[in-house]
Amino acid sequence: MSTASQALGRLNDEVVDCRRCPRLVAWREQVAAEKRAAFAHEEYWGRPIPGFGDPDARLLVLGLAPAAHGGNRTGRIFTGDRSGDWLFAALHRAGYANQPTSTDREDGLALTDCYVAAAVRCAPPANRPTPTERDACLPYLGRERDILARLVVIVCLGSFAWDAALRVLSTRGSAPRPKPRFGHMSRAEVGRYALLGSYHPSQQNTFTGKLTGAMFDAVFSAAKGLS
């Protein structure tokens, strides 16, 4: 096992044990206990969700937070929800994932040159973390940045992830001025990192056509070109 793999393993153990945010702890555990009827037979994860992927990744895909009945149920970010269906299909088309679907932690999904994480590691009520909750989680993202030594591109799924990435990278003293604005296919250079913005593959965006498959593929094609 590589040094990076070991460091990520230790970090992920810390993430899973985290109880920093009382509101998020209460919500994630309530959802895990009450469950959704369609998943009543399953044992929910109900804890913070660590990142996962290739320790040698040049690409980091950063989301907002786990879905209450997605990652909070399966224990892996973007696994078991509609947003994940879009994400992993796109990563597969781009050559980053060995399969286009992800249903549970043991489904054989493997990522190459890509790591996936969330700005906030616990499922929040109404999918809306507070600024305080975001800031409590940012040190985990900062440590992932440091461990992923080959990282050069961060794809930010939505404005929340964009702002979180800018905050973490700015701790290295390389905050761009003026602050780059989020948009689909927006790009910012922060030190040695390139940030790419993408609309989040939420049902609100994919059902309405705000985000199409071609638009999503263009983001990962651009990420390939930058890495």
CATH topology: Uracil-DNA Glycosylase, subunit E
Task: Supply the number of helical segments.
Answer: 8
Strand content: 5-15%
Q: Which of globular, elongated, flat, extended, rod-shaped describes the shape?
A: globular
Residue-averaged pLDDT? 95
For the largest beta-sheet, the strand count, sense and barrel status come to: 6 strands, mixed
Please give the oligomerization state of what you see: single chain
Structural description of this entry:
The protein has eight helices and six strands. The chain is an alpha/beta fold and 227 residues long. The protein has one domain (3-226): 3-Layer(aba) Sandwich (Uracil-DNA Glycosylase, subunit E). The chain has a six-stranded mixed β-sheet with strand order 1-3-2-4-6-5, with helices on both faces. α1 (3-16) packs antiparallel against α5, α4 packs across α8 and α5 (131-147) packs across α6. The mean pLDDT is 95.
